[in-house]
Amino acid sequence: MALPRRALLAAGLLAAVLPLLLLCPAEAGVVGVNYGRVANNLPNPPAVVQLLKQQGITQVKLYDAEPTVLRALANTGIKVVVALPNEQLAAAASRASFALLWVRRNVAAYYPATQIQGIAVGNEVFATAKNATAQLVPAMANVHAALARLGLDNAIKVSSPVALTALATSYPSSAGVFREDLAQPVMKPMLDFLAQTGSYLMVNAYPFFAYSGNAGDISLDYALFRPNAGVLDSGNGLKYYSLLDAQLDAVFAAVNRLGNYNGVRVVVSETGWPSKGDAGETGASAANAAAYNGNLARRVLSGNAGTPLRPNADMDVYLFALFNENQKPGPTSERNYGVFYPNQQKVYDVEFVLGRGSPAAGAGGSQGNGGLGWQENGGPSSSGSTSGNPPSGVKVTTGEAWCVANAIVGEQRLLAALNYACGEGGADCKAIQPGAACYEPNTMVAHASYAFNDYYQRKGRTIGTCDFAGAAYVVNQPPKMGKCDLPSTV
C-alpha cells in the first residue's frame, strides 16, 4: 500500500516504535463532577450517590459540607471535595479556633468513611466576594493548620477555586498575567502555600463565555476540541488547537511570572458548556455541550490533558454540573449546565470511564460510540418547561463517531501513527495520495485524521482503536478537512 510522501520519511524506527506505544497508555487524569444544589426538585442524596456509582463517577466536588450528602457518600469509595463558603472566610482567617471547629464538624466527623480529599476554601473569591480577598490565604492557612492538628493534612489538601477573571491579560496565552491587585498580595502567597503543603491550584475555566462573546473571531471547532487550523501564539511560538488549552496556559504564564511553581499541579475545578441559553448566548445547545464535555472527558481519560506549555501534565477535571439547577439566577444558560435532568435522565451522554457508554443504552441510546449521543429538545412543548424534567417531544439522537488527529502531540508522533495506520494497521490511504480526493489540505493533521478515521471505522470503532499512543481522539460531530468529508463507515 502506497503511503503519502511525508509518511515515507519516517517509515523506519518511528513506525516500529508505535505498536509498542499502543500497549502503554499514558497516565490519565480523572473526570469528576460538581454537585450543586441550587434547585428545589433534585433527587435526595442517597439517590444521587446511586447515580454517581452507576455512571462510574469517582470524584465529586461540593459547594458546602452538607451532612446528608456527606453521610450518603460514606463507604462508597467516591472521593470528595468539600467547601468552606465565602461568607465564613473572615471567621476562618481571624480565628484559628473557628477553623479548627469547622474542620472537626465538617471533615473529621465524616473521614475516612467519606473519602474527603480536599477542602475548597471559598469559591471564586476575587470575583464574587471581593471584600474577602485579603482574608483568603490566612483562612487557607488556618484550615490547613487545623488539619495538621488532627493528623489529616497529608490526606486532605487545601485550595481555593480561582476564576479566569483573576487575570489582567489572557490573550495571547504567553501574555497571561494576574491582576496587579492580586499578583503579589494574594496569588504569590497562595502559590507559596500550595507548594509548601503539596496542594494544587484550582482553576475554573469556561471556553463557552469566551466563544459566546466573540463568536465572530473564535472558531467553534477551536472551542469544542474539534479539528481546526489552530492558533499560533507569536509570544511563545506554540500552536493551540483548543481554547481551554489557551486559557490554562494563560494561567500557567501568569503563575510563571511569580516564580518557579512547576511542582504545583492544576486541577480544573469547574468547566462545562450549557445545553440551552437565551437568544444572545451564542453556542448554547445540547449538541455543543455534548461535544465539549465529551471530547474533554475523553482527552483527560486517555492521558492527553497536557497543554502546549505543560504537555506532560496529567490533570483532573470537574465538569459543571451534575444537574440542571432551576433556582440559579441569571441567564437561561445558568440553569442548563447539567449533564442530568433532576429526574436523573441524561441531557446528553458523557463517559466518566474511558470506553464506557451509557449503561442503559437501548435502541435509542448511544452504544458503541463512547457514550456521546445527545438529546435535543424539540416538539411544541419544549419551550417554557419549568419542571426541570425533559420536555415532551425530546428527540434522542444516536451520535456517530469519527477518529481525528490530536495535533498537540506534534508532527513526529503523528507521523509515526500515520505510518502505522496506513501500513501494518491496514487503513486505506489512497485518498490522501498526491492528487487524490483528500490530499488537500496537505497537512499532517489532515492526512493523519483521514488515516486514523479509516482505521477506526474498519476496526468497528472498538475501544482503543482511536488512541495511537495519544495521537488521536474521538469526536461526535462530522469533522471537515477542506473539501474532504471523513466517512463514519467503511
TrEMBL record:
Q: Name one GO cellular component term.
A: plasma membrane
Q: How does it sit in the membrane?
A: Lipid-anchor; GPI-anchor
Q: Which GO terms describe its biological process?
A: defense response
Residue stretches of biased makeup (Gly residues)? 362-373
The X8 domain extends over: 401-486
The compartments listed are: Cell membrane
Question: Per the similarity annotation, which family is this?
Answer: Belongs to the glycosyl hydrolase 17 family.
The protein's name is glucan endo-1,3-beta-D-glucosidase
Which organism does this record belong to? Urochloa decumbens
